[in-house]
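User: Can you model how fe (iii) ion sits in this protein?
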Amino acid sequence: MQSSRRDFLAAAASAAGAAAAGDLPARADDDPAHSHGHTHDHAHQAVPSDMALRVKSLESLLVEKGVVDRAALDALVDAYEHKIGPRNGAQVVARAWADPAYKQRLLADADKAIAELGFGGQQGEHMLVVENTPSVHNMVVCTLCSCYPWPVLGLPPVWYKSAPYRSRSVIDPRGVLREFGLELSDDVEVRVWDSTAELRYLVLPERPAGTEGLSEAELTALVTRDAMIGVAKVSPRSGGAA
Ligand code: FE
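Assistant: Here's the modeled complex, given as structure tokens:
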């Protein structure tokens, strides 16, 4: 491990410990004793969050012990951040719309059907596809943390990981959907699916009317990430949204 990284972790951990013990003011600039020999024309770095510190410490230990290779970790993060995203899921949805036999396979065994299109891997080992119909609307949440089907949707959006979404989706799903701009009539049943580490859900949205003549590629372009989480419908003019 590089000494600079070790120094950073040691300093950050000590700062966090001091903050936890109440030794630090809320902001360093508020501290009258904070005059360490220079004027304050620079911004002070905020102490990383507890979770960020834990992740950094864990990563450093694993690298130090040779369990993981930092370059491999970077490549993995880059792949899920930049290369794998909701366009994979959009292809799955469009194929299901265009090919009734594929849709049946997808609903019966999502893992196998998704693998037919070449998608699979971490955080997508066990998936279930739930179909929206005119009378049933499905939405997905992870009440515990942020379980999410990475191979088809990429990394979860910030709001998906937020405490309000995680709690309110269960208590008041219609209210949450309304805030996303989706108003469902009372005769539509709303089903909320709680993702876990063992099982992740993908919503198969309704194919919008007026798209009968579109090619599979054109259909793919209409499907949004939010529609596959179940907080939006697919519009015949929407699309391309991450
Ligand atoms: Fe989770």
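A couple of observations from the model: Residues 142, 144-147, 195 surround fe (iii) ion (CB under 6 Å). The chain has two domains: 3-68, 83-229.
User: Helpful, thanks.
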